[in-house]
Amino acid sequence: MLVTGTAEITHVQQKMRPALDIALWNLKSTVNKLRMKALEIFKNVPKEKNYPLFSEPPDLLPLTFGRDVMDENDLAQLTCIAAKGDEPMTVSWTFHGNNISSDLGIITTPIGGRGSLLVISAITFKHGGKYTCIAKNDAGVRHQTVELKVNGRYYQEGTVNILFYFI
After folding, report:
1. pLDDT confidence of 108, banded at 50, 70, 90?
2. Residue 70 CB: number of other CB atoms within 10 A?
3. With bands split at pLDDT 50, 70 and 90, how would you rate the model's confidence at 41?
4. Residues 6 or more apart from 144 whose CB is under 8 A from it?
5. Which residues, including other chains, have CB under 8 Å from residue 163's CB and lie 6 or more apart?
6. Dist. CA 126–CA 128, nearest whole Å
């Protein structure tokens, strides 16, 4: 019985062998055609850049100052981290839509290749407003904005006004 079963299986395998050979040949042919098409598509891509076939855009973690309202002279910091996304990546900041300059007393420091730290050592009313983190790579651009609200004084045409935020 065992010998007959083995013979039947061998016989079936021999009958299917030509069909399997043809299927394997067709598969190899299709793979080669796809490989040639990919080479044709990417032949003009500069070799000095390493372009991944599937690139992932930045995915930013939420921004927060840690408090809804801060007092003058408090230290404020924001950390912008792209938890996902392909490198190389650039991470930058804007304040009210403008690039941040050092004359505002705001320091930014890169954190690895996918993050940046923004620090204001002693906030004043002029620091109140919208801060935006922008992360860019070859796959896309992502941004997040958070508002810094500051309790304190501000000056308007020689008078002192007091501005308070209530939580």
Report:
1. very high
2. 21
3. confident
4. 60, 62, 63, 80, 132, 133
5. 125, 150, 151, 152, 153, 154
6. 5
Q: Which CATH class is domain 59-163?
A: mainly beta
Query: 42 CB contacts (<8 Å, ≥6 apart)?
Result: 51
pLDDT at 9 over 50: no
Beta strands in 6-127 (DSSP E): 59-60, 70-71, 76-84, 90-95, 98-99, 106-110, 115-120
Choose among 91, 86, 90, 89: nearest CA to 54.
86
Side-chain-facing half-sphere of 83: CA atoms under 13 Å: 5
CA distances from 42 to 28, 35, 49, 54, 55 (A): 21, 11, 12, 13, 15
What pTM, to 2 d.p., does this model score?
A: 0.62
The pLDDT value given to residue 5: 46
By the 8 A CB rule, do 121 and 102 touch? no
pLDDT digits (tens, 9 = 90+) for 73-82: 999 999 999 9
The tokens for 146 are 């958070």
